[in-house]
């Protein structure tokens, strides 16, 4: 028997998170810009953004996180710029205005400089000037440059070379060359190659699709991030988006996955958690709902989400196609 999707409660849950009242909210301050993106994405997927969040308030908040010293966005006003908060900011601004008219020409050009300066000679990207390297930052930088329409053949070539160095013999991708395969890293690597139109670099696609399909844990039907781990709602997105990009969604049991996501709802207070009966948060709420959209957006009367950008397809279809 199928569990009901309690849409109105989820909308309320997300809005309350966004109106920053809870103590936990302040503790997770460093996630603020990402949290805003997760909330906006959950609401727009449920076709409930404009009536619940004031467009100008959201834009004003994002612009208040501009770090003029580094020329990009921090996660919170007066915080140092980081590539993660910069992508979240650009994604939300792009939802509101495809042309990003709320940013000055000067701001756009400092964003491009900020991102390009994070690339290292081996093609990888750092998250900020402190130098941590992770395939996640490669995806974030490439996606942000794509949103700004500023990709170049040189950046594309070196970034995709680095991504392929992180491909493992088991069929997955890790966060750096030789690092263990992990589903979230698979998404960022496959997503980067998709943006750069370089998916053909993956020579053993069957092995990759097998690795992704093996993430479905039975009998629950949820996906895990690595072998032997418990299923978690957020992998519904990381795994299914990767399979969608590769046109292989049918390799997993979508019905069982859907039931798992529905079983992670808080039916009383709204929101979704990583596993049934755990504490809800806006991150798992976002990726549970976008996961349901990938499974069957029409059934839930959701909008379609682009698996490459995790943004509405209605918006990404207008992005200029990158020519390698
Ligand atoms: Zn999770």
TrEMBL record:
Coiled coil start-end: none
Pfam families linked: Prenyltrans (PF00432)
Limits of the Prenyltransferase alpha-alpha toroid domain: 7-311
Originating organism: Candida verbasci
UniProt keyword Metal-binding present: yes
Co-factor binding details: Binds 1 zinc ion per subunit.
Enzyme class: transferase
Molecular functions per Gene Ontology: metal ion binding; Rab geranylgeranyltransferase activity
GO cellular component, one term: Rab-protein geranylgeranyltransferase complex
Listed Gene3D superfamilies: 1.50.10.20
Protein name as annotated: Geranylgeranyl transferase type-2 subunit beta
Job of this protein: Catalyzes the transfer of a geranylgeranyl moiety from geranylgeranyl diphosphate to both cysteines of proteins with the C-terminal sequence -XXCC, -XCXC and -CCXX.
Similarity-based family: Belongs to the protein prenyltransferase subunit beta family.
Domain of life: Eukaryota
UniProt entry keywords in alphabetical sequence: Metal-binding, Prenyltransferase, Repeat, Transferase, Zinc
Catalytic activity: geranylgeranyl diphosphate + L-cysteinyl-[protein] = S-geranylgeranyl-L-cysteinyl-[protein] + diphosphate
EC annotation from Swiss-Prot or TrEMBL: 2.5.1.60
Cofactor(s) needed: Zn(2+)
